[in-house]
Amino acid sequence: MIGFVRDKRLEDGVYPALAALMRDIADQVRGYGSLAAVPVDKVGNTRNGMYLTSEALRTLPKVHDSQFSPEDGKVLARHKSSLDTSTKFIPTWVKIVVALALVLGTMIGWKRIVVTMGEKIGKTHLNYGQGASAELVAMATILAADQYRLPVSTTHVLSSGVAGTMAANGSACRRRPSATSSWPGCRRCPVRSCRRARSTSSSAASSDRRPCRLARSGFAGSRAF
What's phi and psi for 187, nearest 5 deg? Predict the structure, then answer.
């Protein structure tokens, strides 16, 4: 499973290992009644297995050697959706707190943000059309990054959009403000990529430590979960 998620190369043992891992997760959850009832010392192992299974199910349709019928594809999609619902979620209170923090921060520090974006990136002030264009470009870039799971910095994207409108308008950009606003994003993106890769690798390694009955397990049994 580790090699498949990392190298995206389908081998003979992938389907049996995936089936065994899915049955293992189902047995753990069924044994405790629900995910909420899983003991604290076993939650990490269970969640790692769920993360690894979700990544494997996301990768399978992209591998040229794998051929699924429409029914099997729907089963895989439903199972991946159920795993993601259980692991990739944000509590409502966290969303509310983050939204309030953003609102309060913008209310307090709006002037510095507006002056930097509107006056200091380019050598001329930003007009309404350029502001709208920069916002649309930033929105499209962030949506595309979210769709393809690419780590981006909103500050980097927006400042790049403003700099692009300045270049399109024929006005030069100030070197220091542009570099200052772009450098943190350039620094954070590789770090986020490394953290994500390390997290996926550690999840795979943790889940693969459990013994799996690869020789006897079949993929058809995974539909039960």
Answer: -80, -35
d(Cα 116, Cα 1) in Å, to the nearest integer?
A: 48
What pTM, to 2 d.p., does this model score? 0.50
Helix, strand, or coil here: 173?
A: strand
Per residue in 85-123, pLDDT (tens digit) is 888 778 889 999 999 998 998 889 888 877 877 777 877
Which stretch of DSSP H or E encloses residue 149? none
User: Are residues 143 and 122 located together in one domain of the fold?
Assistant: yes
Our measurement of the distance from residue 110's CA atom to the centroid of its chain's CA atoms, rounded to an integer in Å, reads 29
- Rounded to whole angstroms, how far apart are CA atoms 40 and 111? 46
Q: Residues 6 or more apart from 44 whose CB is under 8 A from it?
A: 206
Which 3-state string (H, E, C) describes 45-60? HHHHHHHHHHHHHHHH
- Same-domain status, 163 and 185: yes
Amino acid present at 171: S
- On whether the CB atoms of residues 21 and 71 are closer than 8 A, the answer is no
Asked if residues 21 and 2 have their Cβ atoms less than 8 Å apart, the reply is no
Question: Do the beta carbons of residue 207 and residue 25 sit within 8 Å?
Answer: no
Long-range contacts of 111-114 (CB under 8 A, 24+ apart): none
Judged on CB neighbours under 10 Å (0-12, 13-18, 19+), 224 is exposed
Residues 41 and 111 in one domain: no
